[in-house]
Design brief:
alpha/beta, Nucleotidyltransferase, domain 5, 5-stranded mixed beta sheet
Length: 200
């Protein structure tokens, strides 16, 4: 059973083929490739893959066709920015469907950073740094959004203290700007993939 993992970043997408031996066990090595839209981003807080949206499916489809040549994936696993709106989530899903995806399960980054029963997730996007209190088995979370221009280490640590006054929870990060990179343990893409596969 094969899937394609898609993790949109600021102006690019991280892509990998995920080969599952059974429902939960990844077979082989994950090889990540970056997809960069051909047109540079014109607007500062909007990812390049949302700009000139009508022109995005063709180059992405060509990239995916070359990258996953000969593979018929069961689904495209889409990892969303934690500040993604419903409109953005639907736009990304529709973009992947236009590229041939039949099924697009989605999950927010915060829920994929660790398999700890409770932790704080600090993630970044082109607009904001999001600090999320994640508790296993619960969909409702407390979140603090910090606009990107204000997202220095002090602001992120203040948000962490607001969600965890005792500072007892582990903190995991992904995609945060350099100014806030030291607030927790950085999570790698293979961890995101493994944790996504567990919830399929």
């Amino acid at each position: 059973m094969r899937h394609v993992f898609i993790c949109p970043l600021n102006d690019t997408m991280k892509v990998a083929v995920v080969d599952l031996r059974n429902e939960r066990e990844i077979y082989g090595t994950l090889r990540f490739q970056n997809y960069t839209p051909p047109n540079p981003a014109m607007y500062p807080f909007v990812p390049a893959y949302f700009q000139q949206y009508q022109e995005q499916p063709k180059p992405l489809r060509q990239f995916l066709r070359e990258y996953i040549r000969g593979i018929r994936p069961r689904s495209f696993l889409l990892v969303l920015h934690d500040d993604a709106t419903d409109l953005e989530a639907n736009a990304l899903s529709e973009l992947l469907i236009a590229c041939g995806a039949k099924d697009v399960p989605m999950e927010y980054r915060a829920f994929l950073l660790s398999d700890e029963p409770a932790y704080l997730a600090v993630t970044g996007s082109k607009r904001a740094v999001t600090v999320t209190h994640v508790i296993a088995g619960r969909d409702d979370t407390e979140r603090i959004f910090i606009p990107l221009p204000d997202a220095d280490e002090d602001a992120v640590r203040e948000a962490i203290r607001e969600l965890d006054p005792e500072l007892t929870l582990p903190v995991f990060t992904y995609g945060v700007p350099d100014a806030a990179a030291r607030v927790g343990e950085e999570t790698s893409e293979p961890v995101l993939v493994r944790n996504f596969v567990k919830i399929l």
